[in-house]
Amino acid sequence: MKKKYVLIILASIILGVLIGSMIKDLKSVKGLNISKDDIDKREIKMMSKSIKKLQNEKVDLDKEKNILREKYTDIDEIKKMENMKEVLSYTDIKGKGIIITIDSLNEDIGNIANTIDYNKILINLVNELKINGGEFISINGQRINQYSAIILAGSHININSTPIAQPYEIKVIGDTDKLYSYISKENNYIDNIIMNYPMKVEHKVEDSINMPKIEIPNKLRYIREG
């Protein structure tokens, strides 16, 4: 398409030169004293028609050039809008990534929401995942973006004003090489959770992860620590 766009511009330039040259020749012909008036008149008339035809073609080419210019502008704007929608979680996302599940170590431990909130475990893990290749993240079906709030509400965690309960399933889509490397290496934040809290953390690699779009409008300015 870009090649076509360049050809149209070149054609417009060439047509402009031809029209200028023919008009100049026409003026020269009109200034000559030729005995065969009828022949001259017919030639001038034909030349005038040719010039008009070239002018019309140039107009058409200019119109097509403008249409293409507007089309490319629209495509760029559309891409920006689609990217923004993805970032703000307004579109469904599907791709490769990892799934991390956090739950209490056993039934005797019970509800871990207070521990999760007090130690900012979900917030810290989200930040770790973003640093290590995570582009799109959801927790128990709630999409995470810069407007999301992860806070304690009573005995449970609220995300995007929606209550969620353990186990906490964190889905991550993004740079799979970085994500795989992160969950495979020692001394990452996941290991820290396992060593310091009565929780079990499991993770697995998934070739196809689905993340539904966010169901409520974004109102907050950033991910807020409760």
Automatic annotation (TrEMBL):
User: Transmembrane residues, as ranges?
Assistant: 6-23
Q: Which domain of life is it from?
A: Bacteria
What residue ranges carry the coiled-coil annotation? 44-71
Q: Which UniProt keywords apply?
A: Coiled coil, Membrane, Transmembrane, Transmembrane helix
For this protein, the record's InterPro entries field holds: DUF881
**Family under the similarity heading:** Belongs to the UPF0749 family.
- Supply the name of the protein: DUF881 domain-containing protein
Which organism was this protein described from?
Romboutsia faecis
Q: What is the lineage of its organism?
A: Bacteria, Bacillati, Bacillota, Clostridia, Peptostreptococcales
